[in-house]
Amino acid sequence: xxxxxxxxxxxxxxxxxxxxxxxWRFVRPYRRTVFLALAALAAAQASFLALPFxxxxxxxxxxxxxxxxxLTWLPEGxxxxxxxxxxxxxxxxxxxxxxxxxxxxxxxxxxxxxxxGQMGAEVVRDVRRxxxxxxxxxxxxxxxRTPVGRWITxxxxxxxxxxxxxxxxxxxxxxxxxLLAGIVVVLMVVHWKLALVSLATIPLLxxxxxxxRQQARxxxxxxxxxxxxxxxxxxxSVSGTAVTLLFARQDENSRRFxxxxxxxxxxxxxxxxxxxxxxxxVTVLTGASLTAALGYGGWLVVSGxxxxxxxxxxxxxxxxxxxxxxxxxxxxxxFQAAMASAERIFKILDTPKEKEPxxxxxxxxxxxxxxxxxxxxxxxGAAIEFRNVTFAYDADPVLRDVSFSIAPGxxxxxxxxxxxxxxxxxxxxxxxxxxxxxxxLMGGIDISRAPRAYARSRVALVLQEPLIFSGDAYANIRLxxxxxxxxxxxxxxxxxxxxxxxxxxxxxxxxxxPERGSTLSAGQRQLVTYARALAFDRPVxxxxxxxxxxxPETEALIQEGLDTLMKGRTTxxxxxxxxxxxxxxxxxxxxxxxxxxVGTHQELIARGGxxxxxxxxxxx
Amino acid sequence: xxxxxxxxxxxxxxRGxxxxxxxxxxxxxxxxxxATYVKTDILARxxxxxxxxxxxxxxxxxxxxxxxxxxxxxxxxxxxxxxxRIFFLTASHRIARDLRMTLYGKLGRxxxxxxxxxxxxxxxxxxTNDLDAIRMMLGPGVLVAVDTIFYLxxxxxxxxxxxPHLSLWIFMMLPVFYVxxxxxxxxVESRWxxxxxxxxxxxxRVQENTAGVRVVKAYGxxxxxxxxxxxxxxxxxxxxxxxxxxxxxxxxxxxxxxxxGIAIILGFGGMLFFQGRIGFAELVRFLFFLDLLVWPMxxxxxxxxxxxxxxxxxxxLNQILNEEEEERASSAEYxxxxxxxxxxxxxxxxxxxxxxxxxxxxxxxxxxxIEFRHLTFxxxxxxxxxxxxVSVSLPPHSIxxxxxxxxxxKSTLAHLVAxxxxxxxxxxxxxxRDVCDIPLQELRRAVGFVPQNPFLFSDTVRENIAFFDxxxxxxxxxxxxxxxxxxxxxxxxxxxxxxxxxxxRGVNLSGGQRQRATIARALLVRPQILILxxxxxxxxxxxxxxxxxxxxxxxxxxxxxxxxxxVLSTRTADLIVVLEAGRxxxxxxxxxxxxxxGIFAQMVRRQMAEQKGDAHERVR
Lengths: 620, 620
Ligand SMILES: Nc1ncnc2c1ncn2[C@@H]1O[C@H](COP(=O)(O)OP(=O)(O)OP(=O)(O)O)[C@@H](O)[C@H]1O
Ligand SMILES: Nc1ncnc2c1ncn2[C@@H]1O[C@H](COP(=O)(O)OP(=O)(O)OP(=O)(O)O)[C@@H](O)[C@H]1O
Ligand SMILES: [Mg+2]
Ligand SMILES: [Mg+2]
Description:
The complex is a heterodimer. Chain A has helices spanning 16-27, 31-62, 76-83, 87-136, 140-145, 148-190, 192-198, 202-239, 241-246, 250-302, 308-350, 374-382, 422-429, 452-456, 473-478, 486-495, 499-504, 522-535, 552-566, 578-581, 601-607, 610-617, and strands spanning 384-392, 397-406, 411-416, 437-442, 445-446, 459-462, 540-544, 570-574, 586-591, 594-599. By secondary structure, chain A is an alpha/beta fold.
């Protein structure tokens, strides 16, 4: 179930630095928090680093090789005070310092963890907000090609992967790096030769990490890709459940899902393997470091060039060098996963929004509703003209050289065999898509040169496929429009005879309808969307087979009630049942993407063309 | 009931991998501990040597050998590390895969009402985010837990052996640990539950928004949608932060506890050393061993969080997995009725099929009757029944048209025949058998159903038409069905013809094309019962006429339940049933009903009259 859906292919080379720079934009507003967290982290690491030092001191103290007064960095007075102190008291002092540092470390790392968590949540919120807002502005063709499940994956899983980068990733990694640097410095201070010998593995480690990076990224891309496919399939299966049940296709679907899940599993195992290999090689390298330190350090101790306590402290530090390195390689994994997700999120953000006229252009024409009186602007928007419009969704034109004009307040019917391009006319009028050739004028203004809102704010549309959202009837009729009151919504429902069945629901108009209104009958769904179009008081009303699933009786009743309301509004009715068309002033007959005939009912019957033939079929 | 019951089976199935993982973990940890032991051993020897002086060359050799042993232990450590990563993590992904398939399989067995009350996004969220949390529990969670338990089991005895006296101090800290852990456990759980529920809400929102994008755009609701989404994001943020607040303290606290143990030992151990009651080597070893506990403590916090989260997610997944399945009666109460014809017609052999000629030829057909007996049916939660006392009988080879106002219960009737909703016992009979007694698989494979809402999958045209049995239906049959549904001509005009990919829900087809695709899809079931639920509503009259003419002989080979709003087209039906508000109000042939002066006659008049242009005149 993918393919028309443009494949979620493995993206090409991405540049981490560029991705990071773009991600940084999301972190920037919280840089204060970041710096605070880093400061807390630095405090935690510093206190943590001091621990083995004290430990070494204690051990040397026990050996009689150390006294607090040896610490040259202590103030002179303190050293003097310590000078005569009994070892037991010195021990007490050192242990107290140790305990205090443990507490500092606790407070600092809790603070750091809280701050990064907070920031991570904030970044997640911001990324989601921006992503969602961007998605709202994407062109319709993108939605045609993107499975709904993929949007969900992007906005949930992928964003979470990025947030992990911020919560457990970057800051902690930075802390680890800090720690490593600190340890290197301490090691160098303790004994630089020993340090050089035991850290000789670092270049090797760097090379290993570089190799790992490429492998891991490729693996994660595969994981993300298959995950998105799984989600898309799952979402489609769930929305198509009725069909699957009816055709007893569960087994076959399961087989297909299994194939996807297996692919995903394979990709996951691949990434595990890469990571495991890397991790164990890192362990070998750190083992080599420790061994070198032990061997060379031991030799130094034997030769009397190094105190035993120093070696103990050295080993302790080096031991704690190992952990952050392994930790870092874990973090690197998170980093790679996040980058794979970031690529995908930025791919959406990089998809151009629906084109709007450039910022300086609005001055060149005037569509401002504010400058005209309501009626004037209404009339202006209500005149529609198609001039030599040619349009193709893909390669083959669906509309060819279509020209017609509709006067304000006119009632136009569009008929034509199925697939002849009627809905496409509407799609263009609402600027779901932009024409390739020719122009569409509304109120004398070329809509493709005006903001999209220009056309859309003048049109109330009943789609061929009724779309109901989960929510009550009010929410479905007025959508998010605060200007439409409950009374207006009820009035609109009454006009299309939707009030009776909506009122009969368990909580009446307040009954929450499920997704897609699946507990309403098809005709009822159409009536609700019809009511929606009426509630939005717009100069142009477009009914794309709005009553296809409605019985003739109800339709006639609606029609009678609508006559007054429709006065002065331009109405475009697409329908097949000729009864529905009968009230039109003029009828446009579409045939395979061309406008074949135009005229009144009588004219077209008299003409004996396509329309007359269709009409005859009713009595066949 | 504990949520873990569900995964016990999976754990048992993958016990091999887990056993190997634990083994590898043991190797890793033992090697690590042994390495620590060797390290402290070297240090102890060095201490003894200090007095002697390091001139003896034998000492160096000994040192070298010990270092080699140490490095060997580290290699083993690394190998074990590779092992447990692979075993544990792969096993967890395997279980995740199994769970995913279990979920998918379950979704295929759930009844339609479940999907009407559960938003798709919610199911998606459980199938992705919660599944992921469960995997984290089963992989990293189990891993860290085993590791921690191992250290907690091995290190204390080691400590005890090293120095019973010192270890007493450590054991006294255990109750503190217990209290801390218990305290946090509960809090993490409740907050994580909220976080996961919120993810569901987000997914639902995204799903609805992107699936309803046409309405959002047409009515310019982008801003309102963004505002609504922002509110959700703020809620999500609050919940995430609440969780973060708890989690950020927990880990540092555990580590601080472990470290304060070291402080205690430093103090008391030092005192004991000064008193000569403990040796130097003993103390150092004790400290190094104690240090081994610090990281497992971090792990413990992590593992507890993972398990809490996994349990919550498992509970959420279980809510779906414990839902009651569709097939209840059949397996338990189904008694094969030998005297009745089997529902499934004999499948023709491959040889009987010839290109261009469908497998459905008359002698293979075995249509069965449909009968509704005093059928009264109410949807769950509805105030009154949608159908009351419906008694209609459809003999084999008959075409029965159902007409009636919007919401009169026509689709409901159709759904009950296919048992998409469960009818009351003894009310709906197919082939003389109560549908409740017919296994679903058998029933649905005998019914060709064209739903009112033409749902197509994002797959090729071919796959969609051959949906019933994509592997078994030859291409020639697909072409035949497309021809019969008057769809072939348009398919052949598509760029890739039958291999053309469709978008989700078939967005790149026109409404009428989608309907005809679903008709073709149902024909290939070679059904004994064909249900056409208002499936020509978006098809123009001419095409409808052709389809009906073409299908008529085919329909006559089945028992056809035909719902329509185009009353004039029902001339071809054998019998017409008029439903109103769930009751049969008229029943008879077209001629009798049209002449009777009842509701049907009025409907016919309405359509006839208006078409002749009278209504047209009236309106003008
Ligand atoms: N989003 C799309 N992408 C690609 N092709 C499309 C898309 N929508 C429609 N088409 C194609 O454009 C042609 C015209 O479709 P349109 O929906 O305008 O027909 P229509 O006249 O409304 O037919 P109907 O009466 O069946 O609704 C059809 O052949 C259809 O396959
Ligand atoms: N799943 C459901 N749960 C609850 N009520 C439902 C459900 N499906 C339909 N209904 C209600 O049952 C009544 C009959 O619906 P049904 O779909 O059978 O009507 P219909 O005759 O097919 O109408 P239409 O001509 O509009 O297709 C309607 O009032 C509808 O709101
Ligand atoms: Mg259309
Ligand atoms: Mg219906």
